[in-house]
Amino acid sequence: MKFTLSWLKTHLATDADLPTILKGLTNIGLEVEGVENPAEKLGAFRIARVLTADPHPQADKLQVLTVDAGDGACQVVCGAPNARAGLVGVFGTEGAVVPVNGMVLKKTAIRGVESNGMMCSFRELELGEDHDGIIELNPDAPVGQVYAQWAGLDDPVIDVSITPNRQDCMGVRGIARDLAAAGLGTLNAIVVPTIEGVGPGPDVRVEDANGCPAFFARTVRGVKNGSSPAWMAKQLKAIGQKPISTLVDITNYIMIDLGRPLHVYDMATLKGGLVARKGREGEQVLALNGKTYGVDETMTVIADDEAVHDIGGIMGGEHSGATDATTDVLIECAYFTPERIAVTGQKLALTSDARARFERGVDPAFLDDGLSIATYLVTQLCGGSPSEATRAGTPPVANKVVTYEPSQCLALAGVDVAESEQKRILESLGFGVTGHDSTFEYQDGVPVTTPANWTVSVPSWRRDVDGWPDIVEEVVRIVGLDQVPSTPLPRMPGVAKPTATAEQMIERRVRRTAAARGLAEAINWSFISEKEAASVGGGDWTLANPISEDLKVMRPSLLPGLLSATRRNMDRGAAAVRLFELGRRYFADKERATVGFVLAGEKTPRGWQTGKAQAFSAFDAKAEVIALLTAAGAPVANLQSFGEASAAYHPGQSGTLRLGPKVVLAEFGVLHPSLAKQFGLTGTVVAGEIFLDAIPAKRKSGFMRAPYAPPALQAVKRDFAFVIDEGVEADALVRAVRNADKKAIVDARLFDLFVGPGVEDGKKSLAVEITLQPGEKSFSQEELDAISAAVVKAAEKLGGLLRA
Description:
Oligomer: single chain
Structural class: alpha+beta
Radius of gyration: 39 Å
């Protein structure tokens, strides 16, 4: 909701300066999103007179001007067709910044002729779209004065965020009412003119009372449409509204000024009377935005005997809109049900200023007044003769009252506000307050207090107020939420018990481990596009009404979001990207906790020792997977490797880690080239996902780590090399060796692979290092020999022979 400071002051009599008003808006719950003063960027542009205008010696379409901006004549090269001697315009001095493009003006030579600034157009100063020539001002305009001050542009534009429950603040008057209640001024009385209509009103009726309970209208004949008066056009342009014509601008002005949307029909385009009814299958309307919309029976439309002219409460039709040739108009002032407006707007994916107000709920008691004000402005600015008003239907004006005790403010909000101040606030906001105040008296010598009990009538423009807690909210909001005391919740004595769940503790450890290994955390949307979802197998959940087509499917994998983030980083010059994300994947049966990561770019940069930059490989991905699984408490030593990762990975450079053949704990590897190409990535990209929900839960309870208990005796290491068939996986050999003596062997790892001289064809040599940990005493030679024999025997079961 945008408005200018001067516009606000038409409703609020106040001496408060801008910072005070901005602070007051924030204090009463109307968040200020931004403030912009057009005069600030136009401070270096002054009114100037063109003294002479001569042809440019080197260019037919340029002129050499002599310009006086109040401090002597200077030379300017100008290409505007309307530049001439005697013209008074706007001159940008050296050092000024042109608002439309940010160009800094400086002394320069144009086709060999020196130029010391620029004569400006409306478009260059962002004051309009006119760019056919330079600005022409009144010849009496004061030369040398700052243009923004002379033109009255020193008027800050305030942008306020209005929450859905504050329909009354969708007009400048509602905001002024709140500020007046907060003590920042006095609300000016609104003057509703009396319209003496001539002749019967237009033929309008209501058939769909659920969608349009009330439809008020009046005709004005003999109008002359044209450009809006300067004061109205100026206010609309200041807040970003483009002036169209007087008739259209009047409706926009009243909508923003009073929060009351209206619509004007050209009567020459109507066939018969107007009716508010349900739409019919197959009906279409060409709206004012130039798009055609199909309506159905769930929508309320305004139609004549032949066609639909208005999507009720959202947007009018182009066919019946007012034009410069319009002479007779019908002014519509109707009430549309907020729920119907919301459903219609969502179905049609159509937004408008009118919808934003009707969807929240406009004042149902303001139809007559709104119609009178609109009629008055039309007759004053466009002439014409108004008819009587036609009132079809009944506006849903509810006589809502709330029983309220002033003591409830302290009980609920903790703020002690005097009864008189509470009454002043409520009455300033438009509430009616009746009933008795609290009394104190002595009865038989005993002090007795009778608490106040009020009946509060809710104004018609506050449909969000239902009960006494809402009354308390209004009082506290105006007093200031900063007055609510900060009161800590009571704490039970003793040591606080841990609140994190086992799953949360695992996620914390995984997050810290990933960060410690040099990965940066990414936080992506849980929604992705249908195309991205299809690239990783498709999603089970698709939104029917997404906020964007790119956020339509609940993600079945973390990879799309991470790959998009990787591309953005690479596009901005990142040589290496290491990202991880801890989030949820969504399937038909449940959501699953997952950790995903992507490694792209240079693993190590080029150097005189390393040569070319090194890329990441599938083994880097496996190392990350094992590290994160270890942090998550997975039994890494018992995992098995399988080469059957999903289609997102390169089939020959990927794999999975499993507990048995069915329980997949992680998949990893080089990204499939087609998937990398789809996300705009080049080079080798490796990735992985760890499925935290698949990790078996530990039986022990609590979150304390195991006590540190280093072994008393030094470990013993032994190396074994086995010749084995090439088809046997190294992992199978390592697992067999480790299990040869589960008590003594605490670790086994592969440290060498050899194929070549001395190893026959179809065979390979695998060297394994085992770590033996003695317990209460050191191993004897006999024990070491027995362990070695068990290792060799375990390898032989796989066809391995101890290499000589």
